[in-house]
Design goal:
79% helix; mainly alpha; DNA-binding transcription factor activity; transcription; 0% strand; DesT_TetR_C
Length: 195
């Protein structure tokens, strides 16, 4: 039932999706949908939570925390873009449909985003401490970098999913060139390489 709901919500949006359409696609009766989830709002919230958990797990599982910092970023970005490409309806639910559906849905996505930002913040802080030997990095700066990185990755996934010719590896490499190499190096022709 959730698979059908994610597909319909992802393709049509929260407001345009109908419970009849979801029930038909799931191969169940509409009363059965309401038996499990009392309303369209509860069903959409369940979809957001499921897709959020899957995305978070994909990113966490994709990163080897014992790898070098650039490798961790590469692995995390590759896992993120692979997941969003393989689950375009789930990404649409999280990235565009939930944000346009109203406050309760925006808050649900915010919980997922906060968890990903916290994970990225911890990785950046650990990498910076290792690189500079400074245990007292400015937490605000590290959190800001994580926010910027996550926001840029979200925007790039939106673009990549709207242009199916962009592979997950290409999207991850674009982010690496932007985030790791930096715009200055990129403009000078120096790019990050997966080695």
């Amino acid at each position: 039932m959730l698979d059908a709901a994610v597909r319909v919500f992802g393709e049509r949006g929260y407001r345009a999706a109908s419970m009849d359409e979801i029930a038909e696609l799931a191969g169940v009766s509409k009363p059965l949908v309401y038996l499990y989830l009392n309303s369209k709002e509860e069903l959409f919230t369940a979809c957001i939570r499921r897709e959020s958990a899957a995305l978070i797990a994909a990113v966490r599982d994709g990163v080897r925390t014992d790898a070098a910092a650039d490798r961790q970023l590469w692995e995390g970005l590759t896992a993120f873009f692979t997941h969003t490409a393989e689950h375009p309806d789930g990404w649409a639910v999280l990235h565009s449909q939930a944000r346009s559906g109203g406050d309760p849905f925006v808050a649900e996505v915010g919980v997922m985003r906060d968890e990903i930002v916290a994970f990225v913040t911890a990785l950046i802080a650990a990498a910076a401490r290792e690189a500079h030997g400074d245990p007292e990095l400015a937490e605000r700066e590290v959190t800001g970098l994580a926010q910027a990185l996550v926001g840029a990755a979200e925007a790039l996934a939106g673009w990549a999913n709207s242009d199916r010719s962009v592979s997950a590896g290409e999207a991850a490499a674009t982010m690496m060139n932007f985030a790791w190499s930096g715009l200055g190096n990129l403009m000078d022709g120096r790019r990050w390489s997966a080695r």
